[in-house]
Structures
1.
Amino acid sequence: MPAIRPLVPFLALSLLAACGQEPALTLPWGQPEPPVEQALAAARGAVDEAERVAAEVSRLASPDDVDAQVRWRSALGRCRSLQARHDDAIALLDEAVAMTDGVAAPLLRAQALTDRAVVLGAGGRTDEADGDFAAAIGLYEAKGNRAAAEAV
């Protein structure tokens, strides 16, 4: 799990902040203190819950609803990546990106490319991730969405 290990403390700290709690530890290294351990447990629970929701959406979404189909694959792919199931994650995101081919939804494609870039990077495939990040930025800029382009 070395590719996601640096991400987990930041995710945990973000969850604490979102809950209005002050973390006792603000550095991503060292032995976690009890509040961070609790946040890590919450992060694992959040991933499990997100996975359950994505599975339910996959069951309910109409096959011709491209937006829903792309989004549940993206969400589930991100969960798989956080679980260090990178091959599964990449396969889901490959499907999500492929579903946006030829669809007049450049922002949806940009988001799917960004999500795939994240899981590719987590899986150690940084050159491919860089290509997806660049493509997503190009789509955001073409739509005039500078904030999204800068966030990538």
Note: The chain is about 70% helix and 0% strand.
2.
Amino acid sequence: MHHQKHYEHSEENDEHSYEQWLFHIFPSIAYGAGPVVVYPGNMITFTEWNTLELRAGTVMNAERISGSNKLVKLMVNLSEPDLPAGRQIVAGIGAQYEPEALIGRQIVVVANLEPKQLMGTESNGMLLAAHDEAGNAVLLVPERAVPPGSRIS
């Protein structure tokens, strides 16, 4: 039987609460390799799947968030006319990726996720990553370059 742990926001521990928040939003995910377990109560319909706005974006700028070993603030080009500097996304990938090495790379983003404050910085989306056997983030990227903002289906 699956028991979902309730998420409680903690200003003192935002770096770790980010992971708790992910498990709250996506309770069936598990870090690391191994068999995938999908709990019957977590199945979504095709209509619900279609509500996700998955987009390819190009990282325009990236920097560490002060006071965090994991969190990186990214400015991502999703070809949004009202955001010429890009969309701000905070991701817990700083242990695996140097911010400077991310600039110019394409990533996959959940573009219609509600904003979330992480260590005082607003995140307006979520990048997608797999996790290796040690729990390290591995970015999901398009196989070849696509125009920023391209829909992922």
Note: The helical segments are 14-25, 46-49, 99-102.
